[in-house]
């Protein structure tokens, strides 16, 4: 393997490793081997890493079937940083480029000073964003984009995967969990695609979700949207605390219920509703450099905003997890990495 770029040092790096399962204290800052970029990969010097609920679910041991045999237990699916080196067969990226990416694999590996990632998952970092802001984008925004595309391909024939402005024109879209990482991008993207957006969130975030594009807000403590009179073309259940069955009566004919919760009940609904008028869909986030480039254009144009809750230094990953799990913030929590 050849490597292009200068990565000096002792071949080690600092990373936050999950030692066993449990509370935030299982996260330890350790010195580990620095990865090298393989064929088709770039090595990113990480400047900021985003935190997602997936990270603390993995840390708590909620996905042991997936994590049991994994030796490298560095969490983190979102990174923004600078390319330190490129592996063979990488085109379009060079050492020194500012980039952001969603990492694949079970744990991801982003809470670290360096990470190697396939170049097809990487995109140029939006020019107007800081590293911390850019690290708050990938997984949450890619999830929102995929979910809306999935819904769009069902509600609007002939534009299967288009995501142009106007593609959801005059459609009623409800986002359950609108003030969170995924929800804030979903509200903004649905608005960009022309939808009329109803946001479900806590009362303290009502003003904020209106500001980013919601036409109506439902406080989940005051009202159950699934029992209301309003009907929707798309229900994006980000929080996944309502089932397709519970939502069916407020779905319009041809409407779609999309969730990000990949449980057996959700997959069963997806299969069982295939021949029906209204549909249930499960969406899983997938790394995509192309989609990140498209989102970057919207971010640079000021049409899409990333909302940061708090930034913690890498060494305080445990505190950052505790803050996220408490659920009192608004927007993304990010780790800042200083070499
Ligand atoms: N399958 C996938 O690929 C995938 C990808 C990304 C995320 N996810 C999953 O999606 C979920 C949300 O992720 P996230 O990053 O958006 O989380 P987050 O940033 O923690 O946001 C969660 C949001 O849920 C809202 N909420 C809490 N209780 C609610 C209720 N009873 N009704 C409606 N909303 C409620 C909160 O609103 P308030 O703060 O206003 O109370 C908060 O804004 C997580 O479970 C995550 O694991 C899955």
Explain the overall architecture.
The protein is of the alpha/beta class and 339 residues long. It folds into 2 domains: 12-137 and 306-336, Medium-chain alcohol dehydrogenases, catalytic domain (Quinone Oxidoreductase, Chain A, domain 1); 140-282, NAD(P)-binding Rossmann-like Domain (Rossmann fold), CATH 3.40.50.720. The protein has 10 helices and 15 strands. The protein has helices at 53-60, 64-67, 131-135, 138-155, 181-192, 206-211, 244-247, 264-272, 289-300, 317-326, and strands at 12-18, 27-33, 41-51, 78-86, 98-102, 114-118, 122-124, 172-176, 196-201, 216-219, 232-237, 251-259, 279-282, 308-313, 332-336. Strands 3, 4, 5, 6, 7, 14 and 15 form a 7-stranded mixed β-sheet that branches. Strands 10-9-8-11-12-13 form a 6-stranded parallel β-sheet. A two-stranded antiparallel ribbon has the order 1-2. Helix 4 packs across helix 5. The chain is globular. Residues 158-162 have low confidence and may be disordered. Bound molecules: NADP nicotinamide-adenine-dinucleotide phosphate.
């Amino acid at each position: 393997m050849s490597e292009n770029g200068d990565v000096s040092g002792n071949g080690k790096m600092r990373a936050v490793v999950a030692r066993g399962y449990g509370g935030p204290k299982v996260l330890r800052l350790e010195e580990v081997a620095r990865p090298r970029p393989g064929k088709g990969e770039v090595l990113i010097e990480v400047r900021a890493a985003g935190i997602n609920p997936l990270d603390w679910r993995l840390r708590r041991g909620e996905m042991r079937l997936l994590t049991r045999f994994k030796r490298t237990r560095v969490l983190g699916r979102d990174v923004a940083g600078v390319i330190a080196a490129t592996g063979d067969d990488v085109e379009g990226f060079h050492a020194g480029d500012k980039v952001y990416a969603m990492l694949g694999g079970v744990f991801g590996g982003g809470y670290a000073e360096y990470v190697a990632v396939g170049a097809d998952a990487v995109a140029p970092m939006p020019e107007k964003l800081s590293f911390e802001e850019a690290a708050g984008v990938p997984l949450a925004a890619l999830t929102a984009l995929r979910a809306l595309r999935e819904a769009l391909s069902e509600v609007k024939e002939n534009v299967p995967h288009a995501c142009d402005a106007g593609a959801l024109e005059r459609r009623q879209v409800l986002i359950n969990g609108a003030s969170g990482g995924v929800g804030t991008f979903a509200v903004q993207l649905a608005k960009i695609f022309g939808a009329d957006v109803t946001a479900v969130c806590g009362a303290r975030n009502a003003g904020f979700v209106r500001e980013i594009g919601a036409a109506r807000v439902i406080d989940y403590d005051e009202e159950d949207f699934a029992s209301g009179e309003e009907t929707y073309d798309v229900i994006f259940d980000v929080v996944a605390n309502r089932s397709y069955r519970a939502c069916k009566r407020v779905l319009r004919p041809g409407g779609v219920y999309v969730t990000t919760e990949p449980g057996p009940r959700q997959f069963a609904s997806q299969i069982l509703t295939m021949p029906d008028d209204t549909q249930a869909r499960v969406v899983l986030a997938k790394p995509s450099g192309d989609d990140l480039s498209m989102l970057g254009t919207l971010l640079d144009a000021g049409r899409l905003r990333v909302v940061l809750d708090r930034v913690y230094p890498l060494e305080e990953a445990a505190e950052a997890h505790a803050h996220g799990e408490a659920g009192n913030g608004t927007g993304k929590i990010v780790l800042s990495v200083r070499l």
